Each structure stands twice: as structure tokens, then as C-alpha cells.
Amino acid sequence: MDQLLSTEASAIPQVSKLIPHMSYGGDYNPEQWNENIWLEDARLMKEAGVNLVSLGIFSWVKIEPRDGEYDFSWLDRVIDILHAHDIGINLATATASTPAWFVRKYPDSLPVEADGTRLSFGSRQHYCPNHKPLLAYTEKLVRTIATRYKDHPALKMWHINNEYGCHVSRCYCDNCAAAFRTWLQERYGTIEELNARWGTRFWSQQYGEWEEIQPPRKAPTFCNPGQQLDYFRFMNDSLLNLYLTEKRILREITPAVPISTNFMDFFKPLDYFRWAKEVDVATWDSYPDPREGQPVRAAMMHDLMRSLRKGQPFFLMEQVTSQVNWRDINVNKAPGVMRLWSYSAIGHGGDGILFFQWRQSRAGAEKFHGGMIPHSNDENSRIYREVKALGQELKKLNGLIGARTPAKVAIIFDWENWWAVELDSKPHNDLPYVQRVAAYYNECFKRNIAVDFVQPSDDLTAYDIVIAPMLYMVKPGEAENLEGYVSGGGTLIVSYFSGIVDENDRFYPGEFPAPLRKLLGIQVEEFDPYPQGHANTVTYRGQAYGCSLWSDVIQLEGAEAVATYTGHWYAGRPAVTSHSSGSGNAVYIGTELDADCLGALLGEMLTTKGISAPLSAPEQVEVLQRDTEQNKHLLIINYNQEEVCLDLPENEDYVNLLTGERVSGSITVSGIDVAVLQY
Ligand code: GAL
Fold first, then answer.
1. In what order do the strands lie in the sheet with 88-92?
2. Is the CB of 125 under 6 A from ligand 1?
3. C-alpha of residue 411 to centroid of ligand 1, in Å
4. pTM confidence score
5. Domain span at residue 28?
6. How many domains in the chain?
7. What's the gap in Å between 330 CA and the centre of ligand 1?
8. Residue 513 lies in a domain
9. Residue minimizing CA distance to atom 9 of ligand 1
10. pLDDT band at 137 (very low <50, low <70, confident <90, very high)
């Protein structure tokens, strides 16, 4: 596995150069329909401005109907039809679901859950990533497909598998147990080292031989945290290994064709920072609930996707035109909403807008899931009309391709920390990491301040403010990196329950937050987690605010108190502290401040650092900036029903790319509408 897990050094395809226009389209599953509709599909796609479709994602059995027997005749015809209509293909490797004949031949390819239940065939994604014949069959299929279509001019991108880990992110079968032991041996070398890392002296868990080690299957109570954490890592690597097995073949046969696989919304099992090193473009599938109004979480995810590859634009690989089928109640998107959400993706750094799926299915589990064209083929449907209008409109935005988002604020987001901090047996067992991150993100989002996401070991010098929410796990070198950032002039904000454990979930020796204690100039003497309904108050700049969930009892060791608790036995003790170090500043927030307090605190820091929104805007209006070498762009997205008017800086002339009008002084944007200003 190690050999495959290395990132490549050679030149990788530049997506924005190879696809120099806004990509628009969706998943296309022609095998669900009779052939006589394919020409009609292509005609309607062309009319809708579609220029890219993801083809063949679930087509393994159609391509290989029997073991070793391939049928490409139908796919040849589909691809030729699409090409004749100038529609490019994001060709799938068709490995997302193994065929029934494969499962019959290899029943041990079916994944096993932690309680020993083996899952069955009949839905999708039913495979164990460490099943050797699966890897061999995958390699053969991918090589055959790549060899067949390598020179086809319609081939624009490769789509490996689909949403890795979506339904089965961890398998606990015997194949995985054996592979886990090998993985551990490579990681720790000796069984003594493993015992030390996992702290197996506790509860008589010590291992004498590698063969004694099992995955963290269902056990009487909490499994060893080090074992659980390593199983997260191992499964992430197992799925990545499967991806890389395919990627290696595609790169060998088609070195110039970009490769990707689609990511999902804050998907805990896969470390997307690690995965992003292995895709040529980050792509993701976004399905906010229309009841949300303004989809902040999706915006945060867009920013994460853009950050995964250091600012390189991403593709929104899937969204739904209106309704999904998998929530309890599947609300539809009101007219105009799909367009606004698409522009939000573009504003946050998207160079492609695609849907699941082109044509709504007639049968199967997703027949109630919306498509770009309804199953009835109604060209006059509201949905298709909106799809068509957007596709035509996006042609005006080709100048944005490759454009970057300037950001001065970064939030640390770290998957291994996420895995560790949400393991069981903590002082507070309901502190979702993503929610803690979102609390900080939301304050920036409300103010239209661009945010990048970074890892704790990244070079942070480009940012004026770096926020580390709940950085429970601090890995080797990370504390030093944060110290260097602060002493060089940066402002670092660290929140409670940070600096607690090393990479094996063992406490650092000494007082909390041990590795960050000197930098923050504090000591955390005690944690005080609050049950639901309990809260406290703090005073900040003479004003009272609420706080909840958790409070640290803090002792100052060089830092000064910025806010103090006003309740409980530690009233008067610091709740928020600030410590100067070098030419920078390290702020510690020891409790879950309410949004008003966090907003006031962050607002003050942004002002001090001179960080402001590109334009001042009313509530529910996003203003997003994207710059190319030639031009700057402002995307103004109005989620309100009523029109809004925004002042523009003097001495600057703009062109609204959507209307072609010249704009200066101010701009009025109608309710549920958008403007894209170039200057
Ligand atoms: C995605 C998946 C698609 C389709 C879609 C429905 O997770 O990649 O194949 O199932 O969801 O929303």
C-alpha cells in the first residue's frame, strides 16, 4: 500500500487550460433508457448549453455483462452521439458497483460491519476495499476502458469510481484485519512500539504477536482509542489505495487527461486534504436542504474544496435541480434558487456546475430524484427551462475560469483531529467538530470575509488571522509551526479543548494545553462541560454575553484576560485571553461564546487587521471576489425577495457580465438575483 500512497512529482494536467470554459452538465446514465432517446438527449443537452457529462458511473455490468466478456458497442454509440453535439465526457471507470456475477463468484468481496454483519448485494457500493480479486478486476476493467477511449476527442476528464466511502466507509472483514496488521507493521515496526503508542498496558490489552490484533470490532465497551484512530487512518488509506490503483493506470495510458473522483459534504471517513493531492481537480456533490434558505454550510464546503488544492478552482460535480429522494421530506427548490446556489458555488471558486442527473430515472431507488429533464421529457417544464437558461447564461462567464479567491483569514481544518476529538469517552461527548468550525466560519460568512481552510502544518504566512477551533490533537511539528506564524506577526485564535493529545491520542505530559501552553501563555486547570440547558455568562468590553457547552478554568501564565466569566465558582477568572509573542498575538477562547460575543471579538480583530468585505452589503447578500491575471470580479448574490442596492467604490467602472451593462457608483440587484461585475 505504501508504494501506491506516494504522490506523483511529474507534471499534472492543468484543468483550466484543458477545459477553458465553465463546465455545465450532469451525470448521464443512458443505459437506463432505450437507445431511441439518446439523440433526443443530445439535442436537449446542446440546447441547454451542456458541455460535459459524467458517463458510465454505474455501468460495470453493462460494459462487462459476464466475467471477462465486454460490450462497448452501446458506449461507443453514446460517446459518438455526444461528440457530434460538442459535448465532452467525464468518463467514469464504472467501478462504483460490482456486478451480481462478481459477487456470486466472490461472496467474500461483500463488506462486513463492526458487529460482524456481512452486507448483501442489491443496492450499490457493496465492496470491501481490501479484497484482492476486486483490485484485480478493477485494474482489468479500467485498463480496458482507458485503452479503448484514450484517443477519443470527446474524452475531457476521468471520473474514478464514485463518492468513495459514501455507504460503506469501513469494512471489518478478515481480509481487512490481515491488511490492517500489515499496515500497522509498516507504521510501527515492532509490536513493542505499537503497544506503547496504543497505551495497551491499560485494561490488559497488551499484544504479544501481530496476529493477535483485530480491527476495532463490536466489543463489550469502548475500544482502545489508538486502535480506533489507526483504523480510521487505515480505512482512509485502503480506499485511497483503491483509487490510486485506478489512477496509476489512467495516468499511464492517458497522461494528459485530468483525473478526479467526487467528494462529499464534510465527509468524516476520508481525509480529503490527503486525497486532494491525488486528484487533478477537486470535485464535490452538494445537496443542501432547500429549507435552509441561504446554504451557509455548502458555502463553507465550497471554500474547503477550493482550499484542498491551495486555491485551485473546484467543480460542483453534483447538485439537484430541485428535489432529492433521500430525505424524510424532500422539499423542492423555488424558482431561481437553483440558479442562485449555482452562482454561490462559482463565487466561492467553482469552474463547473453539474447535476445528478441529466434525465430523471423511470425506475429504481432514485426515480423521485430530480433531473435536468423530467422523465416525462417535458421541454416546457419549469425545471428544464431553468436548466436551459442557466446553461446559456454561464457561457458569459468563461473569463472567470481559473480565477482565484483572495483570502486573509484561514481556519484550520484537520481530519485526524476530527477523528480523534469525536472518539468516545470524552469530558463532553456532544461537541461535533464541524459545528465548532462553523461557528467561526459563520461570523466571517455573515460579513462576506473570504476564508481559506488550511492544515496545522501548512505555511500560514499569507494569512493575517488563523483560527484553530478545537485543535485537540497536535501532531509533531504543528505547535512549532503555529509558534512561527505568531512570532512572525500573525494573529492566531485557538479555542477550548485544544492541545490535548499527540497523534496516538495520548495526553502530552504536563498541564493542558501542553504543546500550546507557552504560545498561549495560559494553563487550563480544569474542564467544565455543561449539560444541555446549562450555561454561563462572560463579560467582554464591559458587556455581558452568553456562553455554553464547555468552560475552561484558566490560569494566566503571561497572557492577559480579554473576557472573564461572570458565573459559577470560577467567576472573575479569564474566559478569553490574549498573549503577545514576537510580533504577533495568540488568543485563546476557553468557552463556547454565543454568536454575538464571537462576532464582536472577531469583528474587532478583523478591523484591527484591516480586513473587510469587498463591498458592504445588507443581510442575506453574498459578495464574493474572484481574480484572474487580467481582471477582478465581484459576484453579488441576493437571497432576499426584495431588491438591494450596494454602493460601489468610486473611480471604478464595472461591467455586469450577465447583462453586458456598464455599472458605476452603485448597483441594484433584484430579489433572488445575481450580478457578476468585472473590473
Ligand atoms: C450522490 C451520488 C449519485 C446519486 C445522488 C443522489 O451521492 O453520487 O449517484 O445517488 O447522490 O442525490
1. 259-260, 155-159, 88-92, 52-55, 23-28, 350-355, 314-318, 283-285, 262-264
2. no
3. 29
4. 0.97
5. 15-400
6. 3
7. 14
8. yes
9. 356
10. very high
